[in-house]
Design brief:
Number of strands: 23
Strand order of the largest sheet: 4-3-2-1-11-10-9-8-7-6-5
CATH topology of the largest domain: Metallo-beta-lactamase, Chain A
Oligomer: single chain
Strand content: 25-35%
CATH superfamily of the largest domain: Ribonuclease Z/Hydroxyacylglutathione hydrolase-like
Helix content: 10-25%
Distance between the termini: 88 Å
Number of helices: 10
Structural class: alpha+beta
Amino acid sequence: MYKKCIASIGLVALLSVAAAAQDAKTVITNASKAMGADNLKTIQYSGSATESSFGQAYDTRSGWPGFEVKTYTRTINFETPAWQIQRVNGEQPPDRRGGGGAGPANQVVIVNANTQWGQLADYYSTPFGFLRAAASMNPTVKAQTVRGKKYNVVSFTAPSKARVNGYINDQSMVEKIETWVDTPLTGDTLLETTFSNYKDFSGVKFPTKILQKQGDWAILDLNVADVKPNVAANIQAPQGRGRGGEGGGGGPQATSSLKLGDGVYAIAPAYASLAVEFKDFIVLFEAPQSEERTTAIINETKKVIPNKPIRYVVNSHWHIDHSGGLRAAVAEGATIITHEMYKPWLEKALNTPHTLNPDKEEQAKKKVRIETMTERKVITDGNQTLELYHQQGNLHTAGMIFGYVPKAKVLMQADGFNPPAQAGAQGAISRHAPNLMDNVRRLNLNVETVVAVHYPADGRKVPFAEFEKAAQAARSSN
């Protein structure tokens, strides 16, 4: 009798799972029919937008800084699948606060085995991309009420192991999609896209308002003016580029070091750091980009300065590309030095779970230690000295820190001056260069060499005169 009961319970459980799966399929089928997706092979939608740079805000209370997109056109081929985004960007105001940059005029992604989850997550976060993906996975559905409104929430687990949830309203319209993407600093980060003001375009229901948020703040605010179902969409990767999306090429350059003085090394190229040797320890200025990049910097530092621990890592500012390697520094046992305004945000980010892409900090379980500064902090052993200063009046970010090594006469800075790839080449004029120069003059620093986190590709030693010329050009252009 006991075995029969267990068997009956198992059968009921299996039937319940099958019923739930069937319900999910029915919800997807009904939504696809209501939205006109059954015979939809391609779609093109266009309008005006504001796009914002994730992780590039002026301060920790501001939203991600936005860029005007006068015309935003996205074409999706669901059968390839592939998509293309074409932009006509507006002018950037000279007093804009924050970092990042406007999106490329032409962006192409063709899905293959190497397509990153971040790109696929964006595709799954479109109404029809979600319905197609959900139908091909193993979806589940549950009824849920949000702020008094009832939804069927269809969910599936993507190949990345991320959960994808689609909120389908009582009109069978996809109203919201949420999933999680990994970033080097903030870990499992919510990507939420909402759709509203649906209208009929040649038999296809499509939202005329799309709002996408990543990490609480908007990265896309799109007002859709025109939708064209089943347009010709022979999307090809740009010539000479990888087929998983724009980019590709020869891969990263090997990490190397350049001695700038006694116990002072630039660890470069690309995203660079400055290693300063003290009697019993090492200080690194910047843990940039990612765990991979910062680990390479740490390994190179240990080669040129052996048998000493990295006690401190200075974080110039909280932007993702300059703090993305901090978790690797924490795993190394280093204490982070940053401006006091960034401490709460960095503590939260550094303690966020990384389940989608477990990293060294997740595995090491090291305690996060952060020291702060306001206007000035000095690290010294009586022989070697590193001075840290707040870059006052900077429009890139409110708490920017730069460093100065008096004995070597080396200035270490981020985003104030980005030297061109080769000496003598015409580089992009940075609007932040005059401000950095004003701070150097204010403090009467005697600088001979400038190290930029965005290091020149030729790996050269950059003289102060090169920075002076760039700052003057930027000042003259305003």
